Amino acid sequence: MFLVTGGLFVSFSILIYASIYFFLPTFYYNYKTENMERELLNLAQSVEVALNENQFQEAGNLLDEFSATHNTELFMVDHNEQIVHISLPMIMQHSFGREAALRQLIPSNQINERAIVLRAQRAQLKQLKQPLTIFGNPYTIQGIMTLQPIDEAAHVILQFAPYVAIMIIIFATFAAFIYSKVATKPLLKMNQVAKRMSKLDFNAECVVNSHDEIGELAQNLNELSWNLQKTMSALTASNDQLTSELEYERHLEEKRREFVATISHELKSPITAVMGQIEAMIYKIGPYQDRDTYLKRSYEIMRTMDELVKEVLSLSQLEQHGFAPTLEAITLQAVVKKSLKKFEYFCQVKNINVELDLQATTVCVDKKLIEKAIGNVISNAINYSPDGASVKIVLKDRNLIVFNSGVTIAKTEQAQIFQAFYRIEKSRNRNTGGSGLGLHIVGKILDLHGIDYKIANVADGVEFAMKF
Q1: Using 50, 70 and 90 to split pLDDT, how confident is the model at 116?
Q2: 407 lies in which domain range?
Q3: What's the pTM?
Q4: Are residues 311 and 330 located together in one domain of the fold?
């Protein structure tokens, strides 16, 4: 910007200076000639009027005044080419005197002599003639003007050129520096913003202080930055959502594989046991000859497998997309008593003392699902309590609490016991525990109804609380 602007300044200055030097003399010559011809015509008309009215003194004054004003030598010549009047500029009157004043006759051959003298004293001349008629006789006013001043001016311009060149260079350098700074300042700022945008930093903004092309460019750059920021934000959000969905898919896949592995293990062991017993009974091997005893055992194993399959089907139904519970009004205390009645035998065998404190409470839920959830919680409380323990069930203010004494659950395992097939007892022996789906199904049912629940250690036992 600096070099181009400086070069333009210098080029135009040189062009203008050269134009003055080469074209000013010609222009001045044409202007001076045209102006003198016009003035001389007006003078001839005025002198013609004065002389025809016998105002010779007035005519002479007009000629002298014109000569003095325009720095022009005037000759008035009659039809015989004799000078009848001479008017000289003030600077030349001391050479010729007033003897060549009004109506003085001078031979015509002296015109050239006078002209030669004038040309010798003053350089380039221009002679103009203007005819006029006095008392019917033709006369001519001849004017001689000098063109020397413009030639001298052109010569001075040429000699002054080095100084002008120095001033032009100084001015062009200063002006180009200021102009380039002012013109490129907003461009440099926009360049910095563009660099930050290239690094995906969209916080920078161009300050728009004008409405010209640069201001419009700054505004467009700001809009580009805003649009890119909006697009990048949308892409980031989409990427985060996609990442989250992929993580969720991977999590589901891991849970699926874990579920398949676990359910395969849960079914493989009893199937292997039943097949072994049946094969031994077929071939009457050892004690398996007593078929009645081992048929009963095989039946018990198959019944256990049937319960496991039913639990898996129930879980599958709960996890089915779009599954909605069938809501109806029920009394919770009746559901608790019905579930507890199923475990009276186990309570007698383990000598477990059951205490009830049930308040009349009506809720709108899926009856079958809630019966299963409450039944699983009570079953766990009885099955995992030691002999002689106590189980207390309290229903009050829509809060159902099931307490069993004599056991505790580690804090690290309290959140995991609601996972599918999770068991605190890691041997997975059916004699010491179930399949690990009971509390998982409870959690699914309660979540489906929007019921808050938690399990926690309390004094002398474990408490499972549900808030309807």
Answers
A1: very low
A2: 324-467
A3: 0.44
A4: no
